[in-house]
TrEMBL record:
GO terms for biological process: tRNA modification. It comes from marine sediment metagenome. This is tRNA dimethylallyltransferase. GO terms for molecular function: ATP binding; tRNA dimethylallyltransferase activity. Keywords: ATP-binding, Nucleotide-binding, Transferase. The lineage of its organism: unclassified sequences, metagenomes, ecological metagenomes. InterPro entries: Dimethylallyltransferase.
């Protein structure tokens, strides 16, 4: 989503087809997520290359767009220069430090009542097939509340999945990308970033 704004991507104007989406989700459950991805590879290999094969939601959207207008998803994506200047600041740290902070954050989320929060949402009727409920943390705690995992295992899974999410983020925001001004969060960087922002604001 960040790059779509910064790089001026065109977004296909194809409304969601909830019935078709549901059928694809059921298909993924029955025959496996890879089968859906293989279908996308057959009809639009360019789009398939851009989508992580584990990202079922994006795979379904690409198939949905193709079905809606019978045009490959990749052909509907284009770029145009955005009508604004940008300054991209990236925060990073060595992998061990990132993992340590993630683990501390997960432990704090549990202490702050994540289990009770998820339980309340379940009692309100929210389904774990909903995008917001399938996110990291909610999904694993839901599995705990449904008796599929112990709390300790759920917490460990949250940490593991968040570690993996961070690794994916580095695929989107690369340290070698010259458009991004990277700063190490273990350094004293307030003054450096403030100076950079002031310089950018002056043009």
């Amino acid at each position: 989503y960040v790059w779509s704004v910064l790089e001026g991507w065109g977004i296909p104007r194809v409304p969601p087809d909830l019935e078709f989406r549901h059928s694809l989700k059921e298909k993924a459950t029955k025959v496996g997520e890879d089968k859906l991805y293989q279908e996308l590879e057959e009809i639009d290999p360019v789009a398939a290359q851009r989508i992580d094969r584990r990202n079922v939601r994006r795979t379904i959207r690409a198939l949905e767009v193709h079905r809606g207008i019978e045009t490959p998803f990749s052909q509907l994506q284009y770029k145009k220069a955005p009508p604004f200047n940008t300054l991209i600041i990236g925060l990073t740290a060595d992998r061990a430090e990132l993992y340590r902070r993630i683990d501390l954050r997960v432990d704090e989320m549990i202490k702050q009542g994540l289990v009770a929060e998820v339980e309340k949402l379940m009692n309100m009727g929210y389904d774990f097939n909903m995008p917001a409920m399938s996110g990291i943390g909610y999904k694993q705690i839901g599995m705990f509340l449904n008796g599929e995992l112990t709390l300790a295992a759920a917490i460990q899974q949250i940490k593991f999945e968040t570690h993996r999410f961070v690794r994916h983020q580095y695929n989107w925001f690369r340290l070698k990308d010259e458009r991004i001004q990277w700063f190490d969060i273990q350094s004293k960087l307030d003054s450096e970033i403030t100076t950079l922002l002031a310089k950018f604001a002056k043009g």
